């Protein structure tokens, strides 16, 4: 089987690492990096730490407005898919790289497979929600991380090609877990007790009122706050005149490598984030999570009591961090860490 995998943004390297490791011993994989993320700390570090093979192609699209970025990816990717003639194109998650891969594959490849299918936040203002829905609706094989995600697809009229292998990010996390104790904190001065925060969602960074509330909330948390900042957030803090306040009240550091970051999640008292992947990693690592959004596509973590949605309200952020505690039990929400193996088996059954 010849699989063409499309990646481009930080969380996709984490997801693809698990599948690639299972795929490559038995099949041919062509790895395409769209170039959506290009700074070494958002891209290269993941290839090194997760031992991902070098991409066969880098489309080098870089940053830009949605339409231009997606269109550039599509135009460059179409040539490659036409030349390579893969049996299946594999896309991950919900970024513009996902959508570009899906739209090209739907018209030029015999089969399109989507890893992380069926997730919905219910908020169509999120570019990711648009990307998820469109990708699911043109996919042939849909790999859902949970039963609930599969039920969502069914409600939308998609039943064929759906399976529930679990979450590939859990596979990657389990793979590195034993290496965490030896991890160098990458120059970060890690306090004994701290809250780990990340913010990068457009809905938070591009709205000065929301970003200001979040900074305010994080600054008022009694524990030190370690904040590995996405470049988009650093730019927004400067643009909205919030940089000085943030730098004074929070430990703003560069984006961390994956191993360091996971170790930071695992040791934190609590995580405050608007990231999708980080909500799950906090759950896997038994760290309570406060989500700086009104909705989440990972709603099982909220129902299980490990995650609370507080939006961008300073008072609610402080209260939620203060009261955060481990619930008495932890259900298995997203499989048992063998999602990649199950995905490869399903591809073999359906595509070969
Ligand atoms: C993208 C995804 C988001 C995902 C996130 C993971 C979309 C619509 N959004 O958001 O779903 O959660 O990646 O981190 O696809 N920049 C750099 N260096 C880089 C990359 C970006 O400085 O290597 C800056 C640029 O100013 C750019 C901005 O970050 O304009 C936003 O980058 P972009 O890839 O468009 O979106 P993300 O916010 O990273
Ligand atoms: N991550 C990382 N360093 C950081 C922040 C996040 O390695 O400084 C990892 C994190 O462990 C997770 C992934 O990046 O695996 C999540 O990416 P992000 O929050 O950017 O995107 P999302 O999951 O929201 O799409």
Automatic annotation (TrEMBL):
Residues in UDP-N-acetylglucosamine 2-epimerase domain copies: 25-347
Pfam families referenced in this protein's UniProt entry, alphabetically: Epimerase_2
EC number of the protein: 5.1.3.14
Top-rank lineage group of the source organism: Archaea
Uppermost EC category: isomerase
MF terms in GO: UDP-N-acetylglucosamine 2-epimerase activity
Family annotation (InterPro entries): UDP_GlcNAc_Epimerase_2_dom, WecB-like
Keyword vocabulary terms for this entry: Isomerase
NCBIfam families: wecB
Designated name of the protein: Non-hydrolyzing UDP-N-acetylglucosamine 2-epimerase
Organism whose genome encodes this protein: Natribaculum luteum
Gene giving rise to this polypeptide: wecB
């Amino acid at each position: 089987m010849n699989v063409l995998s499309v990646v481009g943004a930080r969380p996709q390297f984490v997801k693809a690492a698990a599948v690639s490791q299972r795929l490559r011993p038995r099949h041919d994989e062509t790895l395409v990096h769209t170039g959506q993320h290009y700074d070494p700390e958002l891209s290269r570090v993941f290839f090194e730490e997760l031992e991902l093979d070098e991409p066969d192609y880098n489309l080098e699209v870089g940053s830009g407005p949605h339409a231009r970025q997606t269109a550039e990816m599509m135009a460059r990717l179409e040539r490659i898919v036409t030349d390579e003639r893969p049996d299946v194109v594999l896309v991950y998650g919900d970024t513009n790289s996902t959508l570009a891969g899906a739209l090209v594959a739907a018209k030029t490849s015999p089969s399109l497979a989507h890893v992380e299918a069926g997730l919905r936040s219910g908020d169509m203002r999120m570019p990711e929600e648009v990307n998820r829905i469109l990708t699911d609706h043109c996919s042939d094989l849909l790999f859902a991380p949970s039963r609930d995600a599969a039920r969502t697809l069914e409600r939308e009229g998609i039943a064929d090609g759906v399976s529930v292998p679990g979450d590939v990010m859990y596979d990657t996390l389990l793979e590195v877990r034993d290496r965490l104790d030896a991890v160098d904190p990458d120059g970060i001065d890690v306090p004994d007790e701290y809250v780990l925060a990340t913010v990068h969602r457009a809905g938070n960074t591009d709205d000065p009122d929301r970003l200001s509330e979040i900074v305010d909330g994080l600054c008022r948390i009694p524990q030190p706050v370690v904040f590995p900042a996405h470049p988009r957030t650093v730019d927004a803090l400067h643009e909205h005149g919030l940089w000085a306040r943030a730098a004074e009240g929070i430990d703003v550091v560069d984006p961390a490598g994956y191993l360091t970051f996971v170790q930071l999640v695992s040791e934190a008292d609590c995580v405050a984030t608007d990231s999708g992947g980080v909500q799950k990693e906090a759950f896997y690592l038994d760290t309570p999570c406060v989500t700086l959004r009104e909705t989440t596509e990972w709603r099982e973590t909220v129902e299980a009591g490990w995650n609370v949605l507080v939006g961008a309200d300073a008072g609610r952020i402080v209260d939620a961090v203060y009261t955060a505690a481990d619930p008495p039990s932890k259900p298995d929400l997203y499989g048992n860490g063998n999602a990649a193996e199950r995905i490869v088996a399903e591809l073999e059954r359906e595509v070969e």
